[in-house]
């Protein structure tokens, strides 16, 4: 409906106007093909997956901070739903609210859901847009069902980088943040979050008789073989085959390293259930590791970036520093024109685009991902559900 309006708006507005200044919000609103202006209802209702026991639920589909002008996409987060339980993959801005909006867990009670049904949290890497609301899950969770979980919720993610990334551009180097531990991994990060909010946790435990964190959750570093982690600055990331690191009665989860330098380690995950498989690319440039992890997957959820936006953000002529930034953006992410070939090489049956950069681009631009791909393409929108395997029973 609004495609021609979007095109006209893009054609008639200057590059400068797109990036800064008073016109930004209006431009962003007109660019947002999937979501419409902030606060407005989405143009199309979310996809449903009635009858599927295993479902992918897209809780947030924004790449980068979820504040693209005019877009209502929430921060990057997904849920793997198996029956009446679910697992979170990344915890971008708004994850608890979106889990509530998706009807996960106890959806009808003011304080007993949605996190009563949470079985695990899986973080692909520790960039803030992927983890910023983990603390929300862990603290506000006490009043959104987390206090009712029937077992300790594991929080899995990459371990300590082991050293600072190289200085980008000429010296001098900036001062190091938290020099005693400048690159904490997932286990340490969760411990630090608990320490940061100790006043709250202790108050809730003593006054409201809520469980203490150690009764509810624990952080864990995904056990990638040590020899693969020896050089955190190595690029491309080391070639490896997936390692299985988590299994319960509903899912088996494996991981591989992906190409998101200078962030390291950065992970992709594969979930296997009785019904089929869902793979999450995390943030990555093209890598054989992901193709192997996603081999014959039912669903591949893949990040994507549009070079057109990068070139608009950093137009030529560029300084050396700007040229470096363009390279970073394009090598640490996967271009929309490349992702189809990756899904095809893996033999993935459905390709779902999420973590869209920019989050305000109209849907037709992402449809270029079909190039070189013969399967089903889904341009993800918040609260979309994608069923895996055969329908087993009626369910929302
Ligand atoms: Zn990232």
Automatic annotation (TrEMBL):
Keywords for the protein's UniProt record, in alphabetical order: Endonuclease, Hydrolase, Nuclease
Source domain of life: Bacteria
GO molecular function: 3'-tRNA processing endoribonuclease activity
Database matches in SUPFAM superfamilies: Metallo-hydrolase/oxidoreductase
Record field: transmembrane: none
Pfam families to which the protein is assigned, alphabetical: Lactamase_B (PF00753), Lactamase_B_2 (PF12706)
Gene3D superfamilies: Ribonuclease Z/Hydroxyacylglutathione hydrolase-like
InterPro entries tied to this protein: AtsA-like_MBL-fold (IPR044094), Metallo-B-lactamas (IPR001279), RibonucZ/Hydroxyglut_hydro (IPR036866), TAT_signal (IPR006311)
Domain Metallo-beta-lactamase: 77-177, 247-355
Protein name listed in UniProt: MBL fold metallo-hydrolase
Species this protein is from: Nocardioides eburneiflavus
